[in-house]
Write a structure and sequence with these properties.
- The protein has six helices and 16 strands.
- By secondary structure, it is of the alpha+beta class.
- The radius of gyration is 18 Å and the shape is globular.
- 39% of the residues are buried.
Length: 264
């Protein structure tokens, strides 16, 4: 995977786009990588799921319905739901997670000192990929303030039929909302939102949805015969604080510097 040439200036948000992010809690940017970079990422992902590439350092989650034997697939790779840790352990995905276009936009949102909080490849195989209920991300995470930013990067076109993102514009400004546990998920209380307020965000392959960690969002099951593969990469200011038990884990610095007493 080759990076952009030195003569190409990294992408930046316009003032209007930055204001839209602050107002709505998200902004979608197309063509974050070149077609060749996208092709290489596709090939590498397929190596892990279908071609036996060593995934011993990664965390892999299978679709719950497949684990329970409710659904059968032709190949085990067709039943994988999530893969965690690619940026830390794979060179191609690390280049994506530190891509100049992504980091330049993140600096406008988060400031000059940025750490990677987490990253997860999210797979919705055709006719198999399940829904992800309405939720906010920050209530899951032991990080303060609740001002993280994720880049949800599409390896395939994301459509209403295969499970594109749905968001509630502006609802991040309401702060953390009540959540509760349901089978296979942790979701917002239905009294906290109205599905009529949801806006679907179809995206072409190679685009990124930059969204606030308190933005309510949801994805439907994949009812199509087309894959929907995306990787969510979550970043935070290096001045954030870890509020979990014990000392802060060591998080990857992707731009700028760290600070004593803040996230590790």
């Amino acid at each position: 995977m080759t990076s952009q040439t030195q003569t190409t200036e990294p992408m930046r948000l316009t003032e209007e786009q930055l204001e839209a992010y602050r107002r709505d809690g998200y902004i979608m940017i197309e063509n974050l990588v070149t077609p060749e970079e996208l092709k290489q990422l596709h090939h590498r992902q397929r190596e892990y799921t279908h071609c036996g590439r060593d995934a011993s350092k990664l965390s892999i989650q299978v679709e719950p319905r497949i684990q329970r034997g409710e659904v059968k697939v032709d190949h085990p790779g067709d039943g994988i739901r999530k893969i965690d840790g690619l940026i830390e352990h794979d060179d191609l995905f690390r280049r994506l997670g530190t891509h100049p276009n992504i980091l330049e936009i993140l600096e406008q949102i988060l400031g000059p000192d940025i750490k990677l909080y987490r990253n997860t490849l999210l797979l919705k195989p055709p006719l198999v990929g399940s829904a992800k209920g309405m939720h906010q991300d920050s209530p899951y995470w032991p990080i303060e303030p609740m001002e993280l930013c994720s880049c949800w990067f599409t390896l395939d076109a994301a459509t209403p039929e295969n499970g594109c993102m749905g968001v509630i514009p502006g609802a991040h400004r309401r702060g953390p909302l009540p959540h509760h546990q349901v089978p296979d998920d942790f979701v917002m209380d239905e009294s906290s939102y109205d599905m009529r307020d949801v806006k679907l965000v179809p995206m072409p392959a190679g685009a990124g949805l930059f969204f606030h960690s308190l933005l309510p969002h949801v994805t439907a099951p994949n009812t199509s015969r087309h894959w929907r593969r995306a990787i969510t990469m979550t970043y935070m200011s290096a001045r954030s604080r870890y509020t979990g038990e014990g000392e802060s884990p060591n998080f990857m610095t992707v731009r700028g510097r760290g600070y004593p007493g803040c996230v590790g």
